[in-house]
Amino acid sequence: MNTLRARRRLLFASAAALAAPAWLSPALAQARNLRPTPSQTEGPFYPVSLPADSDADLLKNGNVVYAKGQPAWVEGTVTDLGGAPVSGAVVEIWQCDHAGHYHHPGDGGRADPAFQGFGKVTVGRDGRYRFRTLKPVPYSGRTPHIHVKVRLDRMELLTTQLYVQGDPGNERDFLWRRLTEEGRAALTVPFNNGSDGVRATFPITVQA
């Protein structure tokens, strides 16, 4: 099964190299230089049980709309070390609410119930994912961040954390400081204002 998947991915990468859309071409052009996205600790607040609503819109929990904090789009692609999209990969994110609380018993159950707090999407043949969520905020000694996990079938390919470029808390954060310069560049991205609000692009490279 893994061999068949690898062959299909190789065929897709070859075809894409000949007729790749504009957004994919840079990744393929640098395929030999791709390195896996750095991993980081899962942290203590991964959901004990996944919420009933765990889609890509964390600002709407069931029928309840979350209207606090600063809304943001977080999006990107999941590719392998050869630059080919990892079709079927599941991207998960989880984070605290605007007041710095997680939906987790270890955080005292203080999270705003309107904030979904966790979301997941399955990427298609183009490898793209997109979440509507909250621009991360700091809490109890941590700089703003979003937790990210990537799975494929039963394999866990990556667990890491996404940081906000230019946030003054980064230099004081013990996990961010442990990263190499290359690791910081890979995990720290700008949250820029756009025509449809704040947007962050986070490309993910995994060994699949």
Structural features, described:
The protein is an alpha/beta fold. It has a single domain, classed as Protocatechuate 3,4-Dioxygenase, subunit A, CATH 2.60.130. It is 16% helix and 29% strand. The chain is built from four helices and twelve strands. The protein has helices spanning 2-18, 25-29, 174-178, 181-187; strands at residues 60-61, 64-65, 71-79, 90-94, 118-122, 128-134, 145-152, 155-164, 188-189, 192-194, 197-201, 204-205. Strands 3, 6, 10, 11 and 12 form a five-stranded mixed beta sheet that branches. Strands 5-4-7-8-9 form a five-stranded mixed beta sheet. β10 (192-194) and β11 (197-201) form a beta hairpin. The longest helix is centred in the first third of the chain and has 17 residues, at 2-18. The two termini are 13 Å apart. 35% of the residues are buried. Residues 10-31 have low confidence and may be disordered.
* Rough outline: globular
CATH homologous superfamily (4th level) name: Aromatic compound dioxygenase
How many domain units? 1
Low-confidence stretches: 10-31
Our measurement of the CA-to-CA distance between the termini, rounded to an integer number of angstroms, reads 13 Å
The first-level CATH class name: Mainly Beta
Computed over alpha carbons, the radius of gyration is 17 Å
Tell me the CATH architecture. Answer: Sandwich
